[in-house]
Fold this sequence. Notes:
Blueprint: E1 4-5, E2 11-15, E3 18-22, E4 28-31, E5 37-42, E6 46-54, E7 59-61, H1 68-87
Antiparallel strand pairs: 1-2, 2-3, 3-4, 5-6, 6-7
Amino acid sequence: MEWITDEYGTIKITIDGWDIEVRPSAEIYVYEPDRDADVELDVENGIFVRGESDSGWHPSATTVNIPWAVLEAFIEARHIANRIKVGS
């Protein structure tokens, strides 16, 4: 996996349309391709995924498929965040 560091110190990668960012604060941000799901990756508590689709009067749950390569990137992002925490 090839991670890049932008001018603000954010380490990021895009895999299969998924954007994963590790901020200098060691926070991890995940953006799925359609932006239909809220995906949170917490270094200590794991992965939280909530998908919603606008199906009329009320949002309803939807299925979110996370490819294996993206899950591998989640694990690597966690290691990067841990290294940032140790270094600060």
